Amino acid sequence: MSLVLLCSGQGGQHPGMFERVGGNARAQPVLNLASELLGTPIEQIAAEDGRFRNAVAQPLVCAAALAHWEGLRDALPPVTAVAGYSAGELAAHAVAGSFDTATCLRLALKRARLMDAATPGDAGLLAVIGLDDVRIARLCAAHGIFLAIVNGPDHVVLGGTRAALTAASAEAATSGARVVPLPVCVPAHTPLLTVAAQGFEDALHSVTLRPPGLRLLAGIDGRVVGDVERVVATLSAQISQPLQWHVVLQQAVERGGRVFLELGPGAALSRRARELHPQLEARSVEDFQTLEGVLEWVDRACARA
User: 93 and 18, same structural domain?
Assistant: First the structure.
């Protein structure tokens, strides 16, 4: 077994993100649930400028991952591991069986609302590429911002207020770094959202949870989530603690992952997997026009692996 499934986080939403699963009988119930939850057809929300608003972005990315999963699951080979990036970790748990699709989408909406309520004024996230750990730590200390995600040895995401991130961005650029403001309006995975993390822990205790049926790697440390207690602990903690995405990918590889399929939206996770581990076969569903094309690639890639 070598197939690893990756569930995307926010930032890759686009108007055509559901076209590949449109009309698919297995995917349609997911789209219907999401549309009902948000009160508007999910395809319409994806086409609107407001698709990056946190309140709809989190249900959108979960719906996209789960619709593709449902459309593909019966024809995929056995799955070695599942992991999700930020809000995508909820979708990963639904794929792994920790809770059903309806619960996942409701939790995504609840998570977004809690994070919005806890966000201090105008805040967000900033990708910084090209600085080492020491300079990142100095940058955070100097500007009162926080490490939010470690994507690799010189690729991190920082969170804080927009004013502080703007100042940090200017300083980082003078040091030769590449800086990219992200289309996310909350300082996710930082201590600024501690209250939201506590609220989400309560929300998780109020729903029916099961131990994951597939190997699920937690975003905060890459370790396997094997029981309900750790489902609650890791999903709540990741709201206010940094994600160690490079560790997640490394753990997936060490556990036999050789073919990585990102369920979308976007292709950032599969691209990062190839960058960190060039020997891997890694693609996103968004690299293909049809689900049939996805399945053909997975079959060939698994045969080569």
Answer: yes
